[in-house]
Automatic annotation (TrEMBL):
This is Class I SAM-dependent methyltransferase. It comes from the Bacteria. It comes from Streptomyces neyagawaensis. GO terms for biological process: methylation. Its EC number is 2.1.-.-.
Length: 213
């Protein structure tokens, strides 16, 4: 992609470099994450209850969450900054649609989607930019559409940076992220906090929200 802000170009290049290894590491990750699966299942149920229209996973990486959403009965598209990640996703799941793109300027029409999954994909965004991402989510979501966010939670602290293995990332207090989305017309439906498993460093946060009509 051309014309990206510098931090997005850095993130895309970093994920290109580790894409093959990353895909191998996360391929079967959901097998041991029942709470994460439950959050995505709740999202899928919410989308189907409204209309069951198209859904996008933004920051899809090698596509395993996109495929999981497909298996939950959703009409889903995967979008990612990293061209190498998109190539791997297409190779692994040739029946699904994957596109290179950025959350800051989606090649989607207003109100096109009934759901968005942002699964650990805003973690690399500088905090000052997260509002612009949420505004873009609102633009492409139809009224009554649903959004689920997965992120690293700050465990009582403020928004803080940490040394993510790929490139700089941020941990967010769950209340602050929920309040930020509320400024753009989202109402919280539910949340889930998961303590770190063996080998993980930080608590995980998850928010399920609906865009008010």
């Amino acid at each position: 992609m051309t014309g990206l802000p510098s931090h997005l170009s850095t993130t895309a290049a970093a994920y290109d470099d580790i894409a093959v290894l990353y895909a191998q590491l996360v391929r079967d990750e959901f097998d041991s994450l029942p709470l994460d699966r439950a959050m995505l299942a709740a999202f899928a149920d919410s989308v189907r209850a409204v209309d069951g229209g198209p859904v996008a996973e933004l920051g899809c990486g090698p596509g395993r969450v996109t495929a999981y959403l497909r298996d939950l009965g959703l009409d889903v598209l995967g979008i990612d900054l990293s061209p190498v990640m998109i190539r791997l996703a297409r190779e692994s799941y040739p029946d699904l649609r994957f596109e290179v793109g950025s959350m800051h300027a989606l090649d989607l029409a207003d109100d096109e989607l009934d759901g968005i999954v942002s699964w650990y994909s805003v973690i690399h965004a500088p905090p000052r930019d997260v509002s612009s991402y949420v505004a873009e989510f609102r633009r492409v979501l139809a009224p009554g559409g649903h959004l689920v966010l997965g992120f690293f939670e700050s465990e009582g602290g403020p928004v803080t940076t940490f040394d993510h293995r790929v490139t700089t990332a941020y941990r967010w207090p769950i209340d602050e992220l929920a309040a930020l989305t509320a400024e753009f017309g989202f109402t919280e439906i539910g949340r889930m906090l998961r303590e770190p498993r063996e080998g993980e460093r930080f608590r995980r946060g998850h928010l399920l929200m609906r865009l008010e009509k």
